[in-house]
Amino acid sequence: MLDLKQKGEEFSTLLVPALVKIIKILQQHGKEVFIIGGAVRDFLCGHQVKDFDVATNAIPEQIIKWLKDVNIKTKPIGGKYGTVLAIEGKNAFDISTFRKETFHTYGQPPKIIFVESLDDDLIRRDFRINSILYDPERREIVDKYGGWDDIQKNSISMIGDPNIRLKEDGLRVIRLARFISKFDFTPEPEILSAVRSIGKSVKFRSTKVIQIELLKFLRVQNIKSGLMLLFENEILHGIFPEFPFETNFAQNNVYPILIEKICSFLTNDEITRLFGILLLFSDETNLNESHFDGIQGNLALSDRQQRLLQRLYTSWKNFPKNKEKTEIKRWVRATGINTSEMVAKIYFLSLLKANDDLYHQENEYLQIIQEIVTRLKNGKSDIGK
């Protein structure tokens, strides 16, 4: 078993000077400071560490004042949740105050109380792998809830009763999907049972937080296991209650192939990936433009994101049914040179689902589209935008 003390020494080398400076300022004012959550978790899982989240018993007003005194910019971003964004040079860090959360109604924002105790803050966290922390004063990684054991077992478990914790906040189910996909972890049976019992009745605090968590999930390279968790347990149905999802999924043996393919190439834009997933999971006979119009309300999408989603649906619907180059060129211009090849691939996956013989002409179509895109890119670069 690897020594967490040794791992703590290794982790300490990742702390950039700007972060060390902020930690020392808070410590100089007598406050506890820890790195917690994603940075420690990703480090122990062997993944690149991108963001450092700081937890402290300093309250937001103190954080803002003390950092302002040393010319570090701050911005309150967490509202009642007590998170302050600290900006030092090119670096930015989320600093959150220890807190308790009490859910009086499932799917509604919890009551927040700032606390002095680290233990009170840790127990509110969702998965054990997210409760592991780094103590910069002792240069040690501290694991009070067995998250390190889960990592070593390629497992994921919750702090508290999954039946309660997942009902409190449906975002935890989406995070679960992200973690099992990103780390190839297996959820504990109690978690899977809780997800099944929640299904389409899943509750969320707001559409904006659904968007944030779902798009994070969609940026993971291979989302197959998490995607199946969300679809087979009807969590997607709860996120998009008006969407006409396929009801004969289990009987269609082509779906495993579709999912493998969609996970392999739809990674460069999460909205495009979302479109492809919803399309392939839909009952296309009952699908129309209004269903994609409604997604803006389901996810609080920006106008730009919504326009892209609508354009993807229109382009899929209007895909040329013959290989006449003038018609395909017109379609590429309307679709956009940067998205046309991806939409074409989605279109042919939908033909595969429908067992349409035109699917076998995919390579011929793609070759023509690639030639057209290359010519357009070598001409006016803004064509199709």
Give structural notes.
With 385 residues, the protein is of the alpha+beta class. It has three domains: 1-153, Beta Polymerase, domain 2 (2-Layer Sandwich), CATH 3.30.460; 160-233, Hydrophobic Seed Protein (Orthogonal Bundle), CATH 1.10.110; 240-385, no CATH class. 50% of the residues lie in helices and 11% in strands. It has 20 helices and eleven strands. The protein has helices at 4-12, 17-28, 38-44, 60-68, 118-122, 147-152, 162-168, 171-183, 189-198, 207-218, 224-232, 235-239, 255-265, 270-280, 289-293, 295-299, 303-317, 325-335, 340-354, 362-378, and strands spanning 33-36, 53-56, 73-76, 83-88, 91-97, 99-102, 111-114, 133-135, 140-142, 155-156, 186-187. The strands form three sheets. A seven-stranded mixed beta sheet has the order 3-4-5-2-1-8-9. A two-stranded antiparallel ribbon has the order 6-7. The chain has a two-stranded parallel ribbon with strand order 10-11. A hairpin with an 8-residue loop joins β6 (99-102) and β7 (111-114). α7 crosses α9 (189-198), α8 packs parallel to α10 and α19 (340-354) packs antiparallel against α20.
